[in-house]
Write a structure and sequence with these properties.
Elements (H helix, E strand, L loop, with lengths): L12 E7 L2 H17 L4 E7 L2 H4 L5 H4 L7 H8 L5 E5 L11 E6 L7 E5 L16 E3 L3 H10 L4 E3 L5 H10 L5 E5 H6 L8 E2 L14 E6 L3 H8 L4 H17 L7 E8 L2 E9 L6 E9 L26 H20 L2 H14 L1
Parallel strand pairs: 1-2, 1-3, 6-7, 6-8
Antiparallel strand pairs: 3-10, 4-10, 5-8, 5-9, 11-12, 12-13
Enzyme class: transferase
Protein name: Porphobilinogen deaminase
Organism: Oryzias sinensis
Length: about 350
């Protein structure tokens, strides 16, 4: 419990829901600290809870088939007014949120790329220089598909659990030569020294929303929406709207290999998107761009219809958000005309059959 609660009996109590894992707590604490700094008089309380995703640790995520694995219990608490906001990794949030919820803030993105963490005995090696048939741990179909394509001499096996568990599985046994994790999580945990390489887009593009934190709120709760909206990072919002619109149009989720890469340069938003077969042998990849110079107005009213792929950002010009969303949809349509649907359908069927 932080600052504004002491000696201020009248201040409003805002409760923040979080998963129990150490990373979730760190991420939630960082958002709470930012809010406390901006609103010193508000009393913030953190409420930690377990989610299905935290409980089912022995099954590959893509097999469980539940999109809202890490978010369901938190949303239930939000719905029952037990908490007022919930902090998530944006990549855990489905592209369509249940009615009544919205993403009220997308914070400045941490490094969105994936990182290679080596078994201590392989110190100094790279994915390219690991011995033939070395086993690399990742439970992400997206990572495995891209890396199989790029490093055919390696084997890929599922590894589940939170960051602490995965690193322990890597270090304590000889099962894995290396594992692939999001650089952002390692950095937030203070484990940057374990990163032997950060994978660049030519090796492995990242997941939609990767590296960004999102604050989910009740869509009708205008006070809280207004309060958290100051946390929005405009560039991250536009990039993530484009990425989420791309994924939504492709109907991709945890269970299909879809990857993206975005950046903003000279008032242009660039989106590269790709889909892969499970073994990486088939792929479609294209890049499109759109201008993000605004002549536009900022809409003042909060309206549930103004959500874009689940995000409400009234302080960012509407025309820019529309342009970002359209970019994602257009890129998905381009890949669909080239056969993306077939690749993803086969990937989904093969994965279900595993």
């Amino acid at each position: 419990v932080s600052g504004g609660c002491r000696g201020n009996p009248v201040s409003r109590v805002i409760r923040i829901g979080t998963r129990k894992s150490q990373l979730a707590r760190i991420q939630t604490d960082s958002v709470a600290a930012k809010l406390q700094e901006l609103y010193p008089d508000v009393c913030l309380e953190i409420v930690a809870m377990s989610t299905i995703g935290d409980k089912i640790l022995d099954t590959a995520l893509s097999k469980i088939g539940e999109k809202s694995l890490f978010t369901k219990e938190l949303e239930n608490a939000l719905e029952r007014n037990e908490v007022d906001l919930v902090v998530h990794s944006l990549k855990d949030l489905p592209t369509s949120l249940p009615a009544g919820f919205t993403i009220g803030a997308v914070l400045r993105r941490e490094n969105p790329h994936d990182a290679v963490v080596l078994h201590p005995k392989n110190a100094g090696k790279t994915l390219a220089s690991l011995p033939k048939n070395s086993v690399v741990g990742t439970s992400s179909l997206r990572r495995a598909a891209q890396l199989k394509r790029r490093f055919p001499h390696l084997e890929f096996k599922d590894i589940r659990g939170n960051l602490n568990t995965r690193l322990k599985k890597l270090d304590d046994k000889e099962d894995f030569a290396a594992i692939i994790l999001a650089a952002a999580g390692l950095k937030r945990m203070g484990w940057e020294d374990r990163i032997s390489a950060v994978l660049q887009p030519e090796d492995c593009m990242y997941a939609v929303g990767q590296g960004a934190l999102a604050v989910e709120v009740r869509a009708k709760d205008t006070d809280i929406l207004e309060m958290v909206s100051v946390l929005h990072d405009p560039d991250t919002v536009l990039r993530c709207i484009a990425e989420r619109a791309f994924l939504k149009r492709l109907e991709g989720g945890c269970s299909v290999p879809v990857a993206v890469h975005t950046y903003i340069k000279d008032s242009q938003l660039y989106l590269t998107g790709a889909v892969y077969s499970l073994d990486g042998s088939e792929s479609l990849k294209e890049t499109m761009q759109t201008s993000i110079c605004s002549g536009g107005s900022v809409s003042e009213e909060v309206d549930e219809r103004l959500q874009r792929v689940g995000v409400t950002a009234t302080k960012i010009p509407a025309d820019l958000q529309d342009g970002a969303e359209r970019l994602g949809v257009d890129l998905a349509d381009l890949l669909l005309t080239k056969g993306a649907k077939e690749i993803l359908t086969v990937a989904r069927q093969l994965n279900d059959a595993r």
